[in-house]
Amino acid sequence: MQLGMIGLGRMGGNIVRRLMRDGHTAVVFDQAAQAVEKLAGEGATGSASLEAFVKALDKPRVAWVMLPAGHITEETVNTLAGLFEAGDIIIDGGNSFYKDDIRRAKMLAEKGIRYVDVGTSGGVWGLERGYCMMIGGEREAVDHLDPIFRTLAPGIGDISRTPHREKLDARAEQGYIHAGPSGAGHFVKMVHNGIEYGLMQAYAEGFEVLQRKNSDELPQDERYALNMADIAEVWRRGSVISSWLLDLTAMALAEHPELDTFSGSVEDSGEGRWTINAAIEEAVPANVLSAALYTRFRSRQQHTFGEKLLSAMRFGFGGHVEKSGS
Hints:
alpha/beta, 14 helices, 12% strand
């Protein structure tokens, strides 16, 4: 298939590369001309403007918007709405708020333009590992895009197959699902990111407890000399708490045992707050997710070993560079 990609940052550019590796073609646009030139040199069709981008797409046009949630995404979708025709498809693969998806889908439907929201997880590793995708929108549009999603998804790989998998959507084992109508994809991704906060916080607190046992402030007979990197590594192998986040933790601790290159000031990109708001709307107790979000707020005031580990994990999976701090 042909796909148009708007936004060639850490994930957008690699999504294009993974698609082209599998024989798909791509038309690309970004405000940064260098990013466009680089992908054009790798085989994509570069565009100097959104108007040129739209003209280069075959009908029915498919444009994937991979930009930060908020004003820039809203502005881009509205511009595309004025340039696209009935039957064309706009995909928002960023981290937009799911209620914005519902509103946009209704607005675009009046013009016959189809809208698909794709919650996309995979970070800077997605080019090689693939992307986990949670998709919302009309089934006909989602099915039309299936060749793209199938290429981008991780596939079964070396992950053990699920018992009673005949009860599942076959695509779920490949790493993507049609979650439901407009907004459902980003809603599922929003909760995914809220859970991510909680998992990261659990690791950070656990390693903080381990690291404090090495403190010079403890009496000699109560003090250990625990090796954080070795502990992370052994937990990766057969432990019930093994995960990709633990893999990233082990990598960070092996390279930076004291985490002295990480500030410990941990940002949040919005999805954690939205998840808590949804929990409040639905009267669901979300103690762990709330505490993890509040810890990120506090981390911008003081920086512990555990918070530096959160910084290390975010850099590991997403390339996020934290602000410098004390």
